[in-house]
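Ligand-bound model needed. adenosine-5'-diphosphate.
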Amino acid sequence: MNRINLSEELARIPTGISCIDSALAGGIERSIITEIYGEGGSGKTNLSLIISLSALNSGGTVYYLDTEGVSVERIRQIAPGAGEMKKFYLYRIKSLEDQELTLTKIERNIERGQKPDLVVIDSFTEYFRLEKGGDPSARANSMQKHLSILLSIISGSGCAAVITNQIYQDVQTGSLEPFGGYVINHSVKAVYRIEKLPDTRRRIELVKHRSAPEGLNAVFRITGFGIECAPG
Ligand SMILES: Nc1ncnc2c1ncn2[C@@H]1O[C@H](COP(=O)(O)OP(=O)(O)O)[C@@H](O)[C@H]1O
Ligand SMILES: [Mg+2]
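Prediction:
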């Protein structure tokens, strides 16, 4: 039985970008998994890095599991003066097994008293698609295992977790859906979708949240130094 610490439960990690924080209902919530999904190039990695830097600038520790080859140059563009980069643990994940081992390692570090503020998996589904594409039940089981470790990390530390996810076109409905279906949906408590608008702008929209209305949204642009609000 875990007694809930109410002040910790309410804590959020803001991005510091006013329109995005409004769309996020104040920021990324601790103690839950937040999912950010959208097509390639929509801005998931940029936003994940900005959330990470915000946590670092508040003195926190961040684990960033990168499956897509995030650019160190891009990190420097967004964080030219971030002084606490030594608390940024960036792991290049090479396989599903590597992803699981890294999550297990973080879990063990927490048991030894090293508490992170944020764990990001960008993208969570990359290797599930690549390695388990043909076998839905093996994929669901494996995905559930990774999510269970992530949930254990959160419950052991009160940190925030962000997973990014790609989309596919559902053959029956024609709609664009995030991968992972009910397995991911069951484990994540906040969900945001980013879409590219016809010009260079993007819209982020709240799809699911425990304490904010669906449809909260913001329009932004990706710039040389990060993200800026744009007229909707
Ligand atoms: N220095 C920069 N100036 C402007 N836009 C940039 C810069 N660096 C990256 N981008 C833009 O960021 C977009 C990719 O965003 P990213 O967060 O990697 O997308 P996702 O993770 O959703 O695939 C691309 O459209 C790219 O042009
Ligand atoms: Mg990306």
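The helical segments are 6-10, 18-23, 44-57, 72-78, 96-111, 126-132, 136-157, 181-187.
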